[in-house]
Amino acid sequence: MLNDKQIQDFKKRLLEMKKETEQDLEKHSDSLGNQDSSAESHQELSDMPDHPGDHGTEQFERAKDQTFYEKARERMMEIEDALQRIEDGNYGLSEKSGDPIPVERLEIEPTARYTVEESQEIEGR
């Protein structure tokens, strides 16, 4: 079981992770918005049709940015869930069995919901 100091240390770390993730979300959101306006202005500046390779590159970049945005959004939800578990008093306990999650696991992944063994069972390994 985690002591109060450990819980506060993990909370501080989670809040730092949340701040970094908020910045990532903003960056990728801005990037997605900039691609839309860039494509519109590019079309307005030229009557010449775009090269198909340009469209492929734009689609790839947009898909990449969308993936990064979605990953950051998922990470934010994990962080917020972990912070809620701290507030609820069940942080560091497996959501599956209620057993304590080893501190070493939480140090590596502060948002962990399960022990390593339970995680592997869930993932089907």
From TrEMBL:
A zinc finger (dksA C4-type) spans 94-118. Residues 1-69 are annotated as: Disordered. InterPro entries: DnaK_N. It comes from the Bacteria. Residues 1-30, 39-69 have a biased composition (Basic and acidic residues). PANTHER family: GENERAL STRESS PROTEIN 16O, RNA POLYMERASE-BINDING TRANSCRIPTION FACTOR DKSA-RELATED. This is TraR/DksA family transcriptional regulator. It comes from Thalassobacillus devorans. The lineage of its organism: Bacteria, Bacillati, Bacillota, Bacilli, Bacillales.
